Amino acid sequence: MRKTSCELCTNVNCFVKMYCSPEWIHKISLSKSQVYFKQNQEIIKEGELVLGMFFIQQGKVKVVSTGLDGRQQIVRFANDGHILGHRGLGYERYPISAVAMEGSLVCFVVNDLLSEVFMANPKLSMGLMVFYSRELRKIETRMKNIAHMNLREKVAEALLLMMEMFGLNKEHELNVPFTREDIASTVGTNVEQISRQLTEFESAKLIQKRGRKVVILKKAGLEHIISKHFMQYAK
Amino acid sequence: MRKTSCELCTNVNCFVKMYCSPEWIHKISLSKSQVYFKQNQEIIKEGELVLGMFFIQQGKVKVVSTGLDGRQQIVRFANDGHILGHRGLGYERYPISAVAMEGSLVCFVVNDLLSEVFMANPKLSMGLMVFYSRELRKIETRMKNIAHMNLREKVAEALLLMMEMFGLNKEHELNVPFTREDIASTVGTNVEQISRQLTEFESAKLIQKRGRKVVILKKAGLEHIISKHFMQYAK
DNA sequence: TTTTATACTTGCGAAATCGCATATTTTTAA
DNA sequence: TTAAAAATATGCGATTTCGCAAGTATAAAA
């Protein structure tokens, strides 16, 4: 498989394409590398040296933080155009892992080039700062939710989170391969609790279980479950 | 009280002083405003319009996210040199509030000037990106901890968090005014549980309660309680 | 100083969550 | 297609956390 040049790449959400000058896009295109990761392969491994940043050209990824005990926490999901490894900035080693949830194509740019790019393309830095600020906002909200919601609410939120990131296929199933364990790691509980809660949602006709797959029947119903935790501001 | 000029300000942790050119420091100094906030006053109010960024010249601050029900989550603590309101970047309204835990002096820079500053001082943007990335890392770790730790561990972590940010005074008390409610909001539980847990820590001779104040007797003991949740990488 | 308000503590029953054990189903591999 | 492995479902007792209530201590106000 040949490397896609940035100039020909059709991913319109890529930060490089959005914020860099044509000359710099060309430079990056020349020196970047590109790797295909199979389902469940680790793109980034917690504890490894930070060598650069990853840009998802096309794929579905979970970002996980692993405890000493092996328990995992899914910190966020990512897909096309999203960045991986930016938390390594200013650090020696990656604080988290990133795992492909299905086959994913990822571009990689080394640190030295990145520094040059940032100094020469202030719009990229600005764009990334806005991105960071949104990430912070999202995760802060999620932290509050994990702290305040009960299990039922947290599972509802996890389903909505996955739906927002990966969408539904034509059969209205969540459009990403995942296990009960993944939901448990998102929510901070164990697989049994997820099973029980999904069963309950199914009896309430909010979802339908199809083997490992989950069909979203009533998004509004799930949203209603968590609505009391969200403030909406007057415009 | 007169406004401190940036040139004469002694806060060495300020991002402006660290990363901007002398001309830009001067420009900022001229157009910034400076406000003193008393204990428990709101520096930033969730839902209000984002007009700029705040830089803490000297003070102690908690950043809180409030639920519809009024339940609060302390998202992080901040002190001298830290930034407030940066999560508003790219947003219309602030997603969180910031409250002075004791009298605090804060500088404010409006949006328009900020954009100019970023475009003209790429090192500032870089510095801020590293800052953001560290914030992300911290909060992701904290999210995992809130999700995985039991109450005892979470309270130990909250005490260590405050100690790291605000230090101890000569009597080894946590050097910041706070209530049990503050710890509860950090941990995601209620005041009663905090009382019980502090009592338990006191019997274990890890801390000593002096009215509202908390003396840290054995930091290593608190660290040991949470150690099983932290990975350390080989150098 | 005295009073009042606020914050803190503790007991105890209720509720939620956990975690083992086991059965079933689904997926993967042969 | 069949066999083996992995993932899912569910009952149930154990454990943790919650939340009210009532009392005590501390800080703020008069």
Describe this structure in words.
Two copies of one chain form a homodimer. Chain A is α+β, with helices and mostly antiparallel strands and 235 residues long. The first copy, chain A, has two domains: 15-138, Sandwich (Jelly Rolls); 149-229, Winged helix-like DNA-binding domain superfamily/Winged helix DNA-binding domain (Arc Repressor Mutant, subunit A, Orthogonal Bundle). Chain A has helices at 15-19, 22-31, 111-120, 122-148, 151-166, 180-187, 191-203, 219-226; strands spanning 33-37, 42-44, 52-66, 72-79, 83-84, 97-110, 207-210, 213-216. In chain A, the strands form two sheets. In chain A, strands 1, 2, 3, 4, 5 and 6 form a six-stranded antiparallel β-sheet that branches. Chain A has a two-stranded antiparallel ribbon with strand order 7-8. In chain A, α5 crosses α6, α5 packs across α8 and α6 crosses α7. The termini of chain A are far apart. The first copy, chain A, binds a DNA duplex (30 and 30 nucleotides) through α7.
Task: Please name the defining characteristics of this protein.
6-stranded antiparallel sheet, 2 domains, two-stranded antiparallel ribbon, Jelly Rolls, homodimer, 41% helix, 23% strand, DNA-binding, Arc Repressor Mutant, subunit A, 235 residues, elongated, 8 helices
Q: What's the level 1 CATH class of the largest domain in chain A?
A: Mainly Beta
Provide the CATH topology of the largest domain in chain A: Jelly Rolls
Count of structural domains of chain A: 2
Largest interface by residue count? A-B, 52 and 52 residues
Following the backbone from N to C, one meets helices and strands of chain A in this order, namely HHEEEEEEHHHHHEEH
